[in-house]
């Protein structure tokens, strides 16, 4: 926005891993997140989207999500996915308005000392016409 940083996004292609680490070998709090990431194989995963508080509510969130969808298409993907915690209702509403739907859920396993609760939700959006859901492929 006129040379001013108002937020950022980060995402990447989720590779089709040949030999994924078994979930039971991972720390318990990572298991639901890694398990959902495995469902998103072949997708472009929007790992983070953030806006400075003073720039929220001005239409920049949907613009950042649209930019992420563009990046996914430019990388050759037909699907984009993200993970969000169920208590984050504002983010879920934003992603839903941008055309994302819930694909799968996993119970959140909080780190010791964390007060996180709820579920991790894998949301996704098909970027190509005529297909939907996580089975659509890259």
UniProtKB/TrEMBL annotation:
<dbReference type="GO" id="GO:0016747">
    <property type="term" value="F:acyltransferase activity, transferring groups other than amino-acyl groups"/>
</dbReference>
<dbReference type="InterPro" id="IPR000182">
    <property type="entry name" value="GNAT_dom"/>
</dbReference>
<dbReference type="InterPro" id="IPR016181">
    <property type="entry name" value="Acyl_CoA_acyltransferase"/>
</dbReference>
<dbReference type="Pfam" id="PF00583">
    <property type="entry name" value="Acetyltransf_1"/>
</dbReference>
<protein>
    <recommendedName>
        <fullName>N-acetyltransferase domain-containing protein</fullName>
    </recommendedName>
</protein>
<feature type="domain" description="N-acetyltransferase">
    <location>
        <begin position="1"/>
        <end position="128"/>
    </location>
</feature>
């Amino acid at each position: 926005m006129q040379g001013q940083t108002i937020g950022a996004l980060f995402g990447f292609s989720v590779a089709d891993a040949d030999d994924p680490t078994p979930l039971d070998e991972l720390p318990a709090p990572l298991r639901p997140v890694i398990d959902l990431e495995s469902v998103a194989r072949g997708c472009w995963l929007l790992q983070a989207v953030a806006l400075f508080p003073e720039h929220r509510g001005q239409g920049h969130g949907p613009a950042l999500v649209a930019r992420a969808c563009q990046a996914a298409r430019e990388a050759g993907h037909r699907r984009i996915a993200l993970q969000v915690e169920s208590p984050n209702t504002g983010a879920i509403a934003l992603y839903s308005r941008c055309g994302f739907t819930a694909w799968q859920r996993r119970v959140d396993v909080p780190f010791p000392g964390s007060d996180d609760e709820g579920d991790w939700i894998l949301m996704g959006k098909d970027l190509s016409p005529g297909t939907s859901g996580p089975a659509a492929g890259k």
